[in-house]
Amino acid sequence: MTTTNANSRQPTKLDYASPTQFRFSIIKLPKVEYFATAANIPGITLGQANQPTPLKDIPIPGDKLEYDNLNITFLVDENLENYREIHGWLTGLGFPKDNEQFRNLQNAGSDRFPTTKNTGLNKELGQIRKAVQDDGGLYSDATLFVLTSKNNANLEVRFRDLYPVSLSGLDYNQQETDIQYLTANVTFAYKIYEFATVGASGVVETTS
Q1: Are 96 and 88 in contact (CB under 8 A)?
Q2: pTM here?
């Protein structure tokens, strides 16, 4: 018989999570990071399968997770510098005018991703050695810091290989009676996100 210790089941923190206690950090967009006003921890969904039976089908857990997108809202600075950071990133990924725009995006990340300009040899094609370029400059890592009630970083949500998929427009209007400073919304896709303690090299795994 399993013995349960009642003391171990009590919560260790009695403070509630506040929606204003956060800080967002992204390597590739320092100006967006500074003006960020809203962010989210994306939801995740685990699919399911149904096991057929002569009576009711039995649902069983799926084997692939689906991650919702990361959404960031930020105030736009007067020179639109932070807005243009993301606009340029999207333009480089989509290269609407010329292939050179894609190459410029790769080269622009060489200060943060030193291997971006290095050409290696792809050995995945058997005996054929094909020169390839690292795609590190196309992506960025980001961290959402969850703060305590005293504004101390308590938990990190680490996003890996993040890139923008959409950027909202900016609406100017001279008939506004009160100044509402412009904000923009950007949506990111990413490979995975994980929880980690502040400053730790590993992630926090929770399986129960």
Answers
A1: no
A2: 0.79
